[in-house]
Amino acid sequence: MSEIVLENLGKTFGDFTALADMNLTIANGEFMALLGPSGCGKSTTMNMIAGMLRPSTGAIRFNGRDIVDVPMAKRGVGFVFQNYAIFTHMSVRENLAYGPRAQGVAAAEITKRVQAFAELLQLETMLDRPAAGLSVNILQRLAIGRSAILEPAIFLLDEPLSNVDAAFRAVMRSELKSLQGQFGQTMVYVTHDQLEAMTMADRIAVMDHGKLLQVGTPLEIYNNPADAFVARFIGAPGMNILEGTLTRHADTVSAEVAGLGSVTLSPAMQGAAALQAAREVQIGFRPEQINAADQGLTMQVTFVERIGARTIVHMEQGASLAKAVLPADVPPPVAGDAWTFAVPDDAIRLFDPVTGRALGGRTH
Ligand code: ATP
Predict the structure, then answer these.
(1) What share of the chain is helix, strand, coil (3-state, %, to 5)?
(2) Which of 22, 137, 196, 232 can bridge 238 by disulfide, Cβ–Cβ 3.0-4.6 Å?
């Protein structure tokens, strides 16, 4: 088990900065997801932790020890990539046994571990089959097993589920989570899929353009995104963000969207010092927190998607776009109609239109 500390970590390729000034502590036994869009620097960070890439600046510490000069094989790290590295000419059993054998683990112990991991990963029935010819789903499961069987203190997974099909991905999400729970390794999981990060991680580090934007538990990030990018990236659909203006009437502050209406801010938000100077703001609210109302914001409904347990209402007004998610038993508005909705004041989030950073008080 290991604590990982990234301290002012940075990586440049020529003039290009792939990662800048990353500070992150991953606790012993924690499941940390590095989440962000393609090119944000997730794999670069992971490859530096693994030892495949040397940092340009900063330090990486495992249990307090700087490991930048420690070669990959000596870091005690297991690594699973998007593209499984399997010996196709070997059987499933031989693939699982390969790593422990190379490490000189005793034969009886190898047999025991192979059996245990085959059971855990539901590979028992195919132990003697050649890996060549197995489905992509099974190969990726085997790749995870091959790395996990070495019981590394740190387990790094870089998009391990992006090539497997959707049903299998859902199964693997819960299996990986329970595997990590059983072994208690420190797990770093790279993904661009917010659902994977939200469902598996203890905490999520959200990145964009080589920068760490926010670190928090899935609910902290969902409820109180530190940044408009994070707000949009988390959730399916993501948070609605509308351009607005703060207006003050006597001692209440509301946020107005030109041509749509206005929303009232919570007392905590109204009292926040950061709002005193702000006038132009970005108004954020989750699609799930919208209710039909007589007063609030009015937008034109463009499209209504009924997807089983919920309905997604797509809306537009001038340059503003928004979505509402309604439970299936709530009658939705009709496409082509204008629809008025309200958002509870404690569900409103405000962001600086220039920096994108969150403004005002947190209510959760
Ligand atoms: P993806 O999921 O697409 O790999 P990512 O968030 O993991 O995205 P990285 O692979 O870390 O992103 O890459 C970050 C940026 O650094 C990208 O713009 C990439 O093109 C660039 N980059 C990565 N490796 C190199 C390299 N060896 N030389 C030059 N640029 C690189």
Answers:
(1) 30, 35, 35
(2) 232
